[in-house]
Amino acid sequence: MAATRSRIYNYNINYDAIKTAAGAMPSAFATKEKLTIECSHWRNPVLPEIATTYSISTFDFAAAPALIDAADDFSVVPGGGKYTASPIADQDITYSVAPAGTKAPIQSLSTYTISIDSPVPLEVASPAAGAPAVACYLEVEFPRELSVAAGSRSYTGTGLLATTGTSSPVTPVLEAFSGPRALVVFKGCANTALHGERKVSAALGFEMPNVKNPYAEQATSAFSIKIFASYDIATKTGSQEIAATSTFAIPASAYGSGALTGIKVTAGSLVVQEATTHAFEFTV
Asked: 181 and 252: one domain?
């Protein structure tokens, strides 16, 4: 008996048991007997899609085994369920909102650098002629505490977002900062020079200038950061979600308040122990 799939990524798959409903595999069994093959270390698909092109065949025990039955090109969704995206842990995200050793001034514009280590492998486009088109899309939705104005800005992509080398200027496929969602979407995994390169991590990073910091020292709400296999620009919707964040936020400690200046105090009377009116003036 054999079970195969053309694009299974092997994690040392173990064929642990072949059995009938009654238990262990008998030396002989009835026609139409239901068989179960149990395997461990079987890796789910790289993308959250229905696994296809499986085949199962049965053979006799002759020296040159002859085919008895076969089922080709059938699809598998274990338990009739649905594959879900892998969670991106907060510790897998690095960020910078100000030069090292400093804090980002509240209500000011800063350059934000964010890098995400994908918790699962990401396929990179192949340079081979006729190879299938491959891409990944990074969608970053900003929390309401950060104001992102539309307009001309430059981005730098790193890791799998870079178009050449490990860092390069990049252009988002979508900027949407004026509607109910403030988001930017990048296309990555398209640098064919990285195909098959084992030293490249599955990191997607970008540098984005002109982000307005919160109006006060406070933690932001959670960012929504997702990695998709495809993206519909018109509807601002990704499909085949590979990985996603749920709790990542920038803490209040990353931001610094300004200093009050020009403090001036005036009093209605300077006679000691007399109750009077004081006025305090300062610049914020």
From this structure: yes
Same domain, 106 and 150: yes
pLDDT at residue 172, as a whole number: 93
CA 210 to each of CA 101, 152, 206, 207: distance values in angstroms, whole numbers, following the listed order:
20, 10, 13, 10
Q: Are residues 60 and 137 in the same domain?
A: no
- Mean pLDDT per block of 10 residues along the chain (284 residues) reads 42 70 66 75 66 76 85 66 82 93 92 90 81 86 85 83 88 88 90 71 85 92 93 92 92 86 85 88 77
In this prediction the pTM is 0.71
| 73 and 145 assigned to the same domain | no
Contact 85, 226 (CB under 8 A): yes
- Give the pLDDT score at 143: 93
Distance CA 113, CA 94 (A): 8
CA distance 19 to 26: 8
**Per-residue confidence (pLDDT) for residue 272, from 0 to 100:** 87
Burial class (CB in 10 A: 0-12, 13-18, 19+), 225: buried
| Distance (Å, whole) CA 1 – CA 55 | 10
- Confidence at residue 9, expressed as pLDDT on a 0 to 100 scale: 46
Task: At 19, list the tokens.
Answer: 């059995």
Contact 109, 210 (CB under 8 A): yes
For residue 59, what are the domain limits? 2-80
Beta bridge partners of 61: none
Q: Is 271 a member of any domain?
A: no
Q: For residue 75, which of 165, 171, 23, 5 has the smallest C-alpha distance?
A: 5
95 shares its domain with 186: yes
Indicate whether 23 and 127 sit together in one domain.
no
Distance CA 191, CA 189 (A): 6
